[in-house]
Amino acid sequence: MKLTTMTQVTIDGVMQGNGAASDDRRNGFERGGWARGKGDDETRAFITQTYQRAEAFLFGRRTYELFAGSWGSIDQMRAHPIGVALNESPKYVASATLAAPRWQDTTVLRGDLAAAIGELKAKPGGELQVHGSGILTQWLLENDLVDEMTLIVIPVILGQGARLFPETGPDLALDLVESRVDSKGVTIQVYRPAGRPRYATA
Predict the structure, then answer these.
(1) pLDDT tens digits, one per residue of 28-59
(2) How far, in Å, CA of 130 to CA of 149, rounded?
(3) 192 in Cβ contact with 147 (< 8 Å)
(4) Helical pair 81-88 and 41-52, crossing angle rounded to 10 deg
(5) Staple 21 to which of 33, 64, 81, 182, CB 3.0 to 4.6 Å?
């Protein structure tokens, strides 16, 4: 399977609290809900179609619990095409502490996470998708496990919050696969990791 990620970020790279204002208030974050209602019908269709082509989903613990309590539990959300895709597909959670996952067809990955994800990627099939799960996405990028990365960039600058790309971290070159901008200024950028960047020499 190809491991793909999809992350909503602000212009200044913040990924925290994109959904409901109360979803994630860690470290005094007060500007949640910045992605709610953004994007036009074409962007929403792109996101839905992405979920629908998943072979399986991989989550970090926090995102898993948010999704399980919404897409996995609320009837109206379960009936939505995204909810159907999530509920009908295998789900994997990277967690050392989750003991009894409540969402059906969930497997908790413990121990050697890189080896476990490598085994999943070696299986035939389509995409192993990661949505949200910022800390996990950072770890996957650091360990060269991401095959394709989609950024949905919302035209807002927050000035606070956890960022997808930390101030210090590994460097990574990217090849642009697809780019589009919708009628509300939301951009979708699809990249493939391409090794380390080249730097100019003195």
Answers:
(1) 677 777 778 899 999 999 999 999 999 999 99
(2) 9
(3) yes
(4) 20
(5) 33
Amino acid at 196: R
Give residue-wise pLDDT tens across range 94-111: 998 898 899 999 999 988
Structural domains of the chain sorted by starting position, each given as residue range(s) with its CATH number in brackets: 2-193 (3.40.430.10)
Answer for the pair 17, 33: CB distance below 8 angstroms, yes or no. yes
What is the enclosing helix (H) or strand (E) of 139? Answer: helix 134-142
- Contacts of 39 by beta carbon, 8 Å cutoff, 6+ apart: 47, 152, 154, 182, 184, 186
Which two tokens mark 61? 């613990």
- Taking the C-alpha atoms of residue 118 and residue 113, their distance in angstroms, rounded to an integer, is 8
